[in-house]
Backbone:
């Protein structure tokens, strides 16, 4: 039956003065103003239209989850319908209409001493919002199915109620969300804090129909008013500002939202300042909400309305939700708007409060450790040493040169080989020399014959000529013999070959005096250090130090600085000075050419200076460079 026809029927009943019970139930159903009243009227109508109903129950609750609570019972509100809970639970669980015999009669026994329990879930958009259950007299199963069908048709009214409530709640939430988003956008729209605060309170005043909205920040001691809606300059309104400050401090002190006039809540709050402000403003309704960020009060907002528009619970919940979002935005803008020195001081104060206040144990532990380290390094001393890249050289180096022009025949020695005295380094080809030797020997024999012949003939002039030729050829032969003796080049002493590898040059010509090898004795080394120019002033002759070679990182070799070359060399974009040192410790594993890192001991200094003097010196140079 349509609502219009029902309403028309009610009017006819009233005009005729009818007292028919069904008509009165319909009138009660149509005029129901609450969900509970509607459910009671609906259940009464259903129970009156179905024959043999002895008890009825309507349960409603959160969809699918519950708890489901009684919204109506029949025949009256005092009826005990707990015996219907079992079939209600089964219908909710199975999500379908069911009926079954009752274990016992709840009122008075029927003809067969049993009643039937019928239950039908209230389902909207595949979600169960409740259940309707009736206790009826026994009847055939076909009639029970018809009863269930009629119950299904009747439940449409309850489904309509739920849809309307859901739609109303959705509309309310949508409106609230739009309001929140608009106000958040108003707080984000402006870059500067003051402009953002004024824009926010003005928009808030317009959206919620307020006469005035005020915003103030709290520094832990007092309130500072930053913005009043529709007002850009409120410096002259000292009385208003003072009253608003008192109202905000009253809410902050109690850490609660204060609404005046109150909402009849169980929590009792002091609202004296609110009462004074309301009296001075012709009885305005006032609501003050503290702004909380990171569990800390950072300010408050006071809203004022005309007396005929008091603040209800929904509005207060909207404000608390809104300010939970916007308080952080306004606070960040306020902090960004401070002077730099103020930011530093506030940050310092915050850290001090964390250190001396409760909790923040990690920060306290870190601070204590850092302080202890600073104190330690300021007083602790250590060895200051100059570090330099170093290379090992022999104390003496000798060049092995070619004794005459010739060709390489053999070259068994290479760079890095350890050779002993008289070990063969290389052999020069002597074939040409031996041919020349044979030639000279034959010439000597011929001249010897000529010499003997001149002696026999007593030819003095010929004797002198032949004797002179013999001496020249014998001198050449001696030279050839000497060269032949030097074709085998040998090590003059125990040494290591530093450079030279002729194994790839067999047959190549060499010239007299050409360097073939460079060797160094196995005993006696010197260290060549490359000290950076920034450290050379700390190095003097006679200083001690230690060397660690890349080839032997587990072994240290002591040394003594013997010479400092006062000429800088450039390498890799830096200037270095050559420093020579004498190695004090001998080892058979040492070889010339080894490289490593040397550290020259200077003196004992504070650790903090040792670790920071490089960066301090660099800053001094940069400051001097850019200082006008």
Residues:
């Amino acid at each position: 039956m349509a609502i219009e026809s029902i309403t028309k029927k009610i009017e006819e009943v009233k005009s005729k003065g009818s007292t028919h019970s069904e008509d009165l139930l319909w009138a009660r159903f149509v005029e129901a103003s609450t969900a509970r009243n509607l459910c009671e009227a609906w259940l009464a109508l259903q129970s009156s239209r179905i024959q043999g109903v002895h008890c009825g129950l309507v349960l409603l609750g959160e969809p699918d989850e519950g708890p489901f609570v009684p919204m109506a019972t029949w025949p009256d509100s005092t009826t005990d319908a707990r015996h219907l809970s079992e079939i209600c639970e089964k219908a909710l669980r199975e999500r379908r209409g069911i009926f079954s015999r009752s274990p016992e009669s709840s009122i008075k026994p029927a003809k067969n001493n049993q009643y039937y329990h019928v239950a039908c879930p209230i389902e909207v958009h595949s979600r169960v919002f409740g259940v309707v259950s009736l206790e009826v007299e026994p009847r055939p199963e076909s009639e029970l199915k018809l009863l269930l069908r009629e119950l299904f048709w009747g439940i449409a009214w309850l489904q309509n109620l739920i849809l309307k409530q859901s739609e109303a709640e959705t509309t309310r939430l949508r409106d609230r969300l739009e309001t929140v988003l608009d106000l958040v956008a108003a707080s984000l729209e402006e870059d500067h804090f003051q402009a953002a605060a004024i824009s926010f309170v003005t928009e808030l005043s317009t959206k919620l129909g307020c006469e005035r909205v005020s915003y103030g920040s709290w520094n832990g001691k007092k309130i500072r008013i930053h913005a009043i809606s529709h007002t850009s300059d409120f410096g002259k309104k000292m009385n208003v500002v003072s009253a608003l400050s008192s109202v905000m401090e009253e809410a902050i002190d109690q850490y609660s939202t204060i609404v005046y006039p109150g909402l009849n809540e169980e929590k009792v709050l002091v609202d004296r300042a609110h009462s004074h402000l309301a009296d001075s403003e012709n009885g305005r309704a006032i609501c003050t909400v503290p702004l909380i960020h990171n569990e800390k009060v950072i300010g408050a907002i006071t809203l004022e309305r005309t007396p005929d528009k008091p603040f209800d619970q929904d509005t207060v919940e909207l404000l608390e939700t809104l300010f939970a979002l916007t308080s952080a935005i306004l606070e960040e803008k306020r902090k960004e708007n401070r002077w730099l020195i103020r930011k530093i001081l506030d940050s310092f104060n915050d850290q001090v409060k964390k250190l001396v206040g409760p909790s923040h144990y990690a920060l306290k532990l870190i601070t204590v450790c850092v302080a202890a380290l600073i104190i330690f390094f300021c007083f602790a001393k250590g060895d200051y040493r100059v570090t330099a890249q170093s290379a090992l050289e022999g104390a003496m180096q000798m060049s092995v040169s070619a004794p005459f022009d010739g060709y390489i025949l053999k070259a068994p020695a290479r760079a890095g080989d350890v050779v002993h005295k008289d070990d063969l380094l290389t052999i020069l080809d002597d074939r040409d020399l031996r041919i020349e030797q044979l030639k000279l020997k034959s010439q000597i024999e011929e001249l010897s014959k000529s010499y003997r012949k001149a002696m026999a003939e007593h030819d003095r002039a010929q004797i002198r000529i032949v004797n002179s030729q013999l001496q020249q050829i014998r001198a050449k032969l001696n030279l050839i013999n000497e060269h032949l003796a030097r074709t085998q080049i040998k090590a003059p002493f125990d040494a290591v070959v530093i450079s030279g590898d002729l194994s790839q040059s067999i047959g190549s010509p060499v010239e007299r005096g050409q360097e073939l090898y460079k060797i160094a004795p196995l005993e006696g080394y010197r260290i060549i250090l490359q000290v950076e120019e920034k450290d050379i002033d700390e190095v003097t002759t006679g200083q001690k130090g230690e060397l660690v070679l890349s080839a032997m990182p587990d072994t240290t070799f002591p040394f003594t600085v013997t010479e400092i070359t006062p000429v800088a060399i450039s390498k890799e974009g830096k200037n270095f000075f050559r420093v020579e040192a004498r190695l004090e410790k001998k080892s058979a594993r040492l070889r010339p050419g080894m490289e490593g890192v040397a550290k020259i001991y200077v003196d004992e200094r504070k650790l903090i200076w040792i670790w920071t003097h490089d960066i301090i010196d660099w800053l001094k140079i940069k400051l001097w460079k850019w200082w006008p």
Notes: The chain has four domains: 32-169, 190-337, 380-395+524-609, 398-517. Residues 449 and 470 are 11 Å apart (CA to CA). Residues 1-11, 13-19, 105-113 have pLDDT under 50 and may be disordered. Residues 380-395+524-609 form a domain with the Elongation Factor Tu (Ef-tu); domain 3 fold (CATH 2.40.30.170).
